[in-house]
Amino acid sequence: MKLWAGRFQKETDTLVNQFNSSIDFDSRLYRQDIEGSIAHASMLGKQGIIEEHEAEKIIAGLRQILAEIDGDGVEFSLDNEDIHMNIEAMLTGRIGDAGKRLHTARSRNDQVAVDTRLYVKEEIPAIIGCVLELERVLVKKAKANLDTVMPGYTHLQRAQPTTFAHYMMAYANMFKRDVTRLEDCRTRLDECPLGAGALAASTYPVDRFQTANTLGFQKPTDNSMDSVSDRDYAIELLSALSILMMHLSRFAEEIILWCSWEFKFVDLDDAYSTGSSIMPQKKNPDVAELVRGKTGRVYGSLITLLTMMKGLPLAYNKDMQEDKEALFDAIDTVELCLPVFAAMVDTLTVRPRDMARAAAGGFINATDCADYLVRKGLPFREAYMIVGRLVNLCIRTGDTLDTLTLKDFRAISGLFDEDVYQALALKTCVNERKVYGGPARESVLTQIGLIEDFIAQRKEEQA
């Protein structure tokens, strides 16, 4: 008989049992559920709501069940619907009537709310740790490629010269924001809903501050109705994870382009590539492609929760059971993608010559040529027009700005002199961009230092 079956005259239909049950996916919350129950039982005993010896018996039974589940010695029952009812049924089966007192002053509504919050609160630092490892790899690659000149792009057209190190720091800053978003989410969810009951708390003298403190929360939630109906923290996490996956996907797209023969800026390690079943020459960037593809999966989880919650009246509704599969899948997906992506980046080989060759074409030093004329006293718009004519000349003759003769330059403007060639050298173009945040060597070293300080501070906080 189900624990809630008192007012029912019929057994639940088998199809309804299967449809209603969540044990297949919420069983992963067993540890959080038992921790919450131990905290609740301890509070019940301290407050005199149940006898102290009963609380002690409940806690001992729960710890025994936890050890058995950890040891794979437990099979969960579909008839008991979810992890909460399964554990309560196990407890009552082991310690008798004392187990039936555990649910005093508690509902499954505040129980599942605290379990899920505990789970998310524990997973966020694990995800942050994975992001910080990727940041470490980006710093390593940047340090090794401070002078590796390559084209920067807009509209996927060669635009201005930069370095591979500058590129790596661009992504490092994206992932830095991801870490701070995850930290913000964890701060906001650090409130304990236990003791809110079904929606209107309890007539028993429960001490919500005690249970919040026992479970490591900053404080109890402020409103019992909101406590059991809130899934903002899950939606916020999925939003942060979606942005994180978007950043991974953008980086994946760069790598997919860069390792193609059309670019050939990098080579992926064989251990992080796959081959073709029919074309023996192929080396496919499947890791990057899968990360790009799995991004849509995480987006889907976010949309699932937003859609599920958008029309729900207060307080708890069964619809909210749909939060867990989406939440778990998104967390699992991100935790699967981050380590393999970091390893792929760590082991890829940079091809500086191919990058330099690409940077030499496409007139990516055209802006620097215009700036050269501006320094000679010409207004920028006039300089812009002159360089445009030079580029048009190069296109007709098959030259680059670097290969034009001084006579060619002076035929369009008498302001050009021998020093134009030094001004147009790609390393000059890069290293003269010393503005804070720019691609010059000294600027990128500053950026690397900031990311290293960020990583070190977070590692210290996590220790």
What this model shows, in words?
With 463 residues, this protein is mainly alpha-helical. Helix content is 62%, strand content 5%. The chain contains 19 helices and six strands. The strands form three sheets. The chain has a two-stranded antiparallel ribbon with strand order 1-2. The protein has a two-stranded parallel sheet with strand order 3-4. Helix 3 (30-46) packs across helix 8 (208-214), helix 10 runs antiparallel to helix 11 (286-309) and helix 10 (232-258) runs parallel beside helix 12 (323-347). The longest helix has 37 residues, at 108-144. The chain starts with 13 loop residues before the first helix and ends with a helix. The mean pLDDT is 95.
Question: How are the SSEs placed, and which strands pair?
Answer:
Layout: H1 14-20, H2 23-26, H3 30-46, H4 52-70, H5 83-95, H6 108-144, E1 149-154, E2 157-163, H7 164-188, E3 191-192, H8 208-214, E4 219-220, H9 224-229, H10 232-258, E5 266-267, H11 286-309, H12 323-347, E6 349-350, H13 352-360, H14 366-375, H15 380-397, H16 406-412, H17 420-424, H18 426-431, H19 441-462
**What Rg, in angstroms, do the CA atoms define?**
30 Å
- Strand content of the residues, in percent? under 5%
- Count of individual beta strands: 6
Poorly predicted ranges (pLDDT <50, ≥5 residues)? Answer: none
Order of helices and strands: HHHHHHEEHEHEHHEHHEHHHHHHH
| Number of H- or I-type helical stretches | 19
Mean pLDDT: 95
Shape: elongated
Give the N-to-C terminal Cα separation. Answer: 47 Å
Summarize the amount of helix as a percent range. Answer: 55-70%
**Which class of secondary structure composition applies to the elements?**
mainly alpha
Sheet having the most strands: 2 strands, antiparallel
Strands of the widest sheet, in order across it, are 1-2
